[in-house]
Design brief:
By secondary structure, this protein is an alpha/beta fold. The chain contains four helices and three strands; from the N terminus they run αβαβαβα. Strands 2-1-3 form a three-stranded parallel β-sheet.
């Protein structure tokens, strides 16, 4: 009985599952978080990187500044966001190497 049920479930899954096509990345706008104030070196670097990525990938990359706590607020925001690749962090090494030790 269990074997028949398992075979039926497998056949049902095989019959009704269509081919899954991978979406091209990015399929929607990407958020790039800069954990420093606007106008600084990290912000200028993040905006120029976002512009180059937008041109090459034909999708918009939106830069958002989330300053505070030596980059910890923006880094924490990215760490707690959905792990789908649509929220990126543009930062120096401090918030991800030094801050956790402190």
């Amino acid at each position: 009985m269990k074997r028949t049920l398992a075979v039926n479930v497998c056949l049902f899954a095989a019959l009704f599952s269509g081919q899954v096509a991978a979406q091209s990345y990015p399929a929607k706008p990407v958020r790039m978080i800069v954990p420093y104030v606007a106008g600084g070196a990290a912000d200028i670097f993040g905006r120029s990187l976002a512009q180059k990525l937008s041109e090459s990938m034909k999708q918009s990359f939106v830069v958002e500044n989330k300053p505070g706590a030596n980059g910890g607020i923006g880094s924490d925001f990215v760490a707690k966001s959905a792990a789908d690749g649509y929220t990126l962090l543009a930062t120096a090494s401090g918030p991800i190497t030094v801050n956790p030790v402190l």
